[in-house]
Design a protein that fits this description.
Blueprint (H helix, E strand, L loop, with lengths): L22 H5 L13 E2 L1 H17 L10 E7 L7 E5 L11 H14 L7 H11 L4 H12 L9 H11 L1 H8 L18 H9 L10 H12 L6 H11 E2 L25 E8 L3 E9 L5 E9 L7 H14 L3
Parallel strand pairs: 1-3
Antiparallel strand pairs: 2-3, 2-7, 4-5, 5-6, 6-7
Helix pairs in contact: 2-11, 3-5, 4-5
Length: 328
C-alpha cells in the first residue's frame, strides 16, 4: 500500500520584493471575494482508489523507470455535490503546470470582469477561447498582460522592474486571498526562451521562478468551476462551455485534449470537461467526468520526466474509472 505524502503546504510563492512599500503597492486594490472557497474532507475509501491507481501505474510502467516521485494525483468525488470528498497522492507537491496554468488565468479573467476591472470585449472573449480550446500561448500572454497591467519588453531599471513585478503578481495575490497555497501563477507560458524583462524577473526571484501548481490546488479550482462557485454561476457555466470536450472517436481537436489523456479511459456515453497540456518534461490533465451511471468526479494527474509516455495518464484514470463505473 502506498502511503500518500501529506507534507505541510508551504506559503504561496509570491516572492514579494522589498517593493511592497512602493507606489505600486500602495495603489494596488485587493480583489474582494463574494463566496467562501470550497473545502473538501478526506475520504479513506477514496484514498484506496488513488493508491491502487498509482500502484498499478508504477507496476505497469516499471520498465520505463517511472518512480514514486514522478506522479501526483488528486481525486474529488462529487457524488454529493454539496459535500465533495478528496484523496490525493503527492497532492501538495509543486510541479511545473504546463497548460493547466491556463485554468487559473481563465478564472482570474472572469473574476476581474465580474469586479469591473476588465471590460467584457469580443477580443477578450476570443483570447479566452483560444487559450482554453486551442491552448494558444499567444492568447494566454495577452490575458496575463490584461490581468496584471504588464507587458513584455526590454529590461527595466531596478525601480521600474520592482513595480512591474509587483503588478505581475496580481493573480497570485488573488488566489492567496482565497487560501490557495504552494502555487505560483505569474508567468506567461513560453515555447521558446524568455527575453527582456521576463528574463529579468526570473533573475530577481531564483530559485522558485517558474509557474508552479499542485494537483490539490488544481482539483479544487476545477471543482469550484464545476460547482458554479469559482466566480458567479453564470460565469462558471461559460467556463465549462470552453472546457467541454468531445471524447468520441470521430471528433477532432487541434491539441488532442479530448483524446490523448483521461479520455482514453472513458467508457461510451461518458462526458468530459478538461484542460490538458504537455511539455518536454511533463504531461498533465485536469478533468471533470460524468459517467452514464451518474457518478461525477474531478481527476487531476501530473506526470514528470515522462512526457513521451502517453499511456500513463489513461492508465491511472482507468483504475479510477473502474471504481466509479462499478457503482450502482
Amino acid at each position: 500500500m502506498i502511503v500518500p505524502i501529506r507534507a505541510p503546504l508551504a506559503a504561496l510563492l509570491l516572492l514579494s520584493l522589498a517593493v511592497v512599500q512602493t507606489k505600486a503597492a500602495q495603489t494596488d486594490t485587493p480583489i474582494k471575494t463574494t463566496k467562501p472557497s470550497l473545502e473538501f474532507d478526506h475520504s479513506p475509501s477514496l484514498q484506496g482508489v488513488v493508491d491502487r491507481a498509482v500502484e498499478g501505474a508504477l507496476e505497469k510502467f516499471a520498465a520505463t523507470k517511472l518512480t514514486t516521485h514522478q506522479l501526483a494525483v488528486t481525486l474529488v468525488d462529487l457524488r454529493d455535490p454539496d459535500k465533495p470528498v478528496q484523496a490525493s497522492y503527492r497532492g501538495g507537491e509543486q510541479i511545473y503546470p504546463a497548460s493547466v496554468i491556463k485554468l487559473f488565468y481563465l478564472v482570474a479573467v472572469h473574476r476581474w470582469m465580474e469586479d469591473g476591472k476588465l471590460a467584457d470585449t469580443p477580443e477578450l472573449r476570443r483570447a479566452m477561447r483560444d487559450m482554453i480550446v486551442d491552448s494558444l500561448n499567444e492568447a494566454t500572454g495577452y490575458l496575463v498582460d490584461s490581468l496584471t497591467g504588464t507587458t513584455s519588453g526590454p529590461e527595466l531599471a531596478p525601480k521600474e522592474m520592482q513595480e512591474w513585478y509587483y503588478k505581475r503578481n496580481a493573480v497570485n495575490r488573488y488566489f492567496t486571498s482565497l487560501g490557495y497555497t504552494n502555487i505560483n501563477v505569474n508567468r506567461k507560458p513560453w515555447c521558446e526562451g524568455l527575453y527582456g524583462r521576463e528574463t529579468q524577473s526570473i533573475q530577481l526571484t531564483k530559485p522558485n521562478h517558474r509557474n508552479w501548481l499542485t494537483t490539490d490546488a488544481t482539483a479544487r479550482l476545477l471543482t469550484e468551476i464545476v460547482a458554479g462557485q469559482a466566480v458567479s454561476a453564470k460565469r462558471c457555466a461559460e467556463m465549462m462551455e470552453l472546457l467541454k470536450r468531445d471524447p468520441s472517436p470521430n471528433s477532432g481537436n487541434k491539441n488532442d485534449q479530448a483524446h490523448a489523456y483521461t479520455a482514453l479511459a472513458l467508457p461510451p456515453g461518458a462526458k468530459l470537461w478538461s484542460k490538458a497540456g504537455w511539455t518536454g518534461e511533463c504531461r498533465h490533465d485536469a478533468a471533470y467526468v460524468e459517467l452514464p451511471n451518474g457518478a461525477k468526479f474531478v481527476l487531476v494527474i501530473f506526470t514528470m520526466d515522462h512526457a513521451g509516455e502517453r499511456e500513463i495518464i489513461p492508465a491511472v484514470a482507468k483504475t479510477v474509472l473502474e471504481e466509479f463505473t462499478a457503482r450502482k
